[in-house]
Specification:
Number of helices: 9
Largest sheet: 7 strands, mixed
Oligomer: single chain
Bound molecules: zinc ion
Number of strands: 14
Structural class: alpha/beta
Helix content: 25-40%
Radius of gyration: 17 Å
Shape: globular
C-alpha cells in the first residue's frame, strides 16, 4: 500500500505535471496544465486535491505554473517554490488567480517533510526568474527530477547519481532543431546554457555518470517539433552501448508522453 508511486500527466512545452506519492497521498511537481485535466488525472488514481499535500514548482514558465493559482487558492494545496519563482508567478499575466494563503517559500537547499516524503531542491540553469530541480526521499529510496536546464552541473549530477529513479530532460535532437522550422534566435535560446538539454547531452551525462543505483530513467520535456521518443531513446542507448554499459539488465529508460498520462509506476522497496 505504501510503496512509492510515480505517474506523469503531461511533459513538454504544452504543459508539465508529475505525481509522486504512495497509495494514500502525494505531491505534484509542477502544475502546467488545466486544473480540470489535473483533477481528472487525480480521480483516475482514486485521488483528489485533498490527497495532494503540496505542489512543488520548478520555475515560472507557463507550461509549469498554469494551474497553481486555482490549485493553491481554491483547493488549498500549498504551493512551494523559491521567493524569486513566486515573484515570477505573481508577475505572470497568464496566472489569473494570484497566490496568497497557499504561497509557501521553499529556499534552495532546505528540506521539508511532507508525510513520509522528504523534499529538497537544487539549482538548475534555465532562462526563468530562477529554476530548481527536486530530490524526493521516501523510505530509503530517492527520486530526482531535473527538467528545463541548459546543462547538467556537478551539483545537479550529484543529486541524480544518488537516486534510484530519475526524471531528466531530453528536449531536442540537435539535427532536427537545426534543420527544423524554429527561427535562429529561438534555436540559440534553446541551445544555450540557460536553455534545454538535447538528446546528446542527456546521453553523455547518463554514460559519464552511469551508476548501478538507477532503476528507472524517465525522459521528460521532449520537443514536439525537434525530437522523437525513439530518437531520444536510441541516442542514449547508443551512448551507453559504446561505453560497454549493459544497462538493460538493471534499468528501464522511458520517454514520457507529451500529452498522454503515463502508466502508474509502483516501485519496489
Ligand atoms: Zn518547460
Ligand atoms: Zn522552462
Amino acid at each position: 500500500m505504501d510503496r512509492l508511486r510515480f505517474r506523469s500527466l503531461a511533459s513538454g512545452s504544452s504543459g508539465n505535471c508529475y505525481f509522486i506519492g504512495n497509495a494514500s497521498y502525494g505531491i505534484l511537481i509542477d502544475a502546467g496544465v488545466g486544473v480540470r485535466t489535473i483533477r481528472k488525472f487525480l480521480k483516475s488514481m482514486g485521488m483528489d486535491f485533498n490527497r495532494i499535500w503540496g505542489v512543488f514548482v520548478t520555475h515560472d514558465h507557463i507550461d509549469h505554473i498554469k494551474a497553481v493559482g486555482t490549485i493553491g487558492e481554491k483547493f488549498h494545496v500549498p504551493i512551494y517554490s523559491t521567493q524569486k519563482i513566486h515573484e515570477g508567478i505573481e508577475r505572470s499575466y497568464r496566472v489569473t488567480q494570484k497566490l496568497s494563503l497557499s504561497k509557501e517559500i521553499f529556499n534552495i537547499g532546505e528540506q521539508i517533510q511532507i508525510g513520509d516524503f522528504t523534499v529538497q531542491s537544487f539549482p538548475v540553469s534555465h532562462d526563468a526568474s530562477e529554476a530548481v530541480g527536486y530530490s524526493i526521499q521516501y523510505k530509503g529510496k530517492k527520486f530526482t527530477i531535473a527538467t528545463d536546464l541548459g546543462y547538467v552541473s556537478e551539483e545537479v549530477a550529484s543529486y541524480l547519481t544518488d537516486s534510484d529513479y530519475i526524471i531528466l530532460e531530453s528536449n531536442y535532437d540537435e539535427e532536427m532543431l537545426t534543420k527544423g522550422p524554429y527561427p535562429r534566435v529561438l534555436q540559440q535560446r534553446i541551445k544555450a546554457d540557460t536553455g534545454h538539454l538535447c538528446n546528446t547531452q542527456t546521453a553523455s551525462f547518463l554514460a559519464d555518470y552511469f551508476t548501478e543505483k538507477w532503476k528507472y530513467v524517465f525522459l521528460c520535456h521532449l520537443s514536439k517539433e525537434n525530437n522523437l521518443p525513439e530518437l531520444a531513446f536510441m541516442t542514449i542507448k547508443e551512448h551507453l552501448n559504446s561505453r560497454m554499459i549493459d544497462f538493460e539488465e538493471q534499468m528501464e529508460i522511458i520517454p514520457l508522453n507529451r500529452m498522454e498520462p503515463s502508466a502508474m509506476y509502483v516501485f519496489e522497496h
